[in-house]
Design goal:
The chain is mainly β. It has a domain of about 110 residues: 2,3-Dihydroxybiphenyl 1,2-Dioxygenase, domain 1. It is about 15% helix and about 35% strand. Strands 1-4-3-2 form a four-stranded mixed β-sheet, covered by helices on one side. The longest helix is centred in the first third of the chain and has 10 residues.
Length: about 160
């Protein structure tokens, strides 16, 4: 009879715990603290008339007037957190160029949209779109004297 070979019951050498170098994903940078805003600049055929319209019809206020050597060049206007820079066209690109084409300013507000639209109309504004609901907001649209399109909206 053949002898069975004894299986060696040697324990496998203890493995040292290998710490894998795990690359931690860089921490996501938090959004910058403070206020982030946009202030579009538009060029008007008659900046004084456009600024008057924004103030008289939409209820904006003049923040800063721009004059040089006694010549009016425009102004920064605003309402709440909205700022718009309105500059006088210098006509270097021609007097017949169309303004505001392909652009729309969406202005978020916490105002009652229907009341604000009624107030705008009462002050002489002609709405491009009456107040309506869609895309999770109540909104209306208007065009400024140069054709720049503006939509006022209240979300929720």
């Amino acid at each position: 009879m053949a002898k069975k070979a004894k299986k060696s019951k040697k324990k496998a050498p203890a493995r040292k715990a290998v710490k894998k170098a795990v690359k931690k994903a860089p921490a996501k940078k938090a959004a910058p603290k403070g206020h982030i805003a946009i202030a579009p600049g538009i060029t008007a055929n008659d900046a004084a008339a456009s600024i008057k319209w924004y103030c008289d019809v939409l209820g904006f206020k003049v923040i800063e007037r721009w004059e040089h050597d006694g010549v009016f060049h425009g102004a920064q206007i605003g309402s709440g957190g909205v700022i718009i820079n309105v500059g006088q066209d210098d006509w270097k690109m021609g007097r017949d160029r169309v303004k505001g084409q392909g652009t729309r300013m969406y202005i978020d507000t916490n105002l009652d949209i229907d009341k604000y639209a009624a107030d705008v109309k009462a002050r002489g504004g002609v709405l491009d779109q009456e107040p309506s609901s869609g895309w999770g907001a109540r909104m209306f649209s208007i065009n400024d004297p140069d054709g720049f399109k503006i939509t006022f909206m209240k979300r929720g």
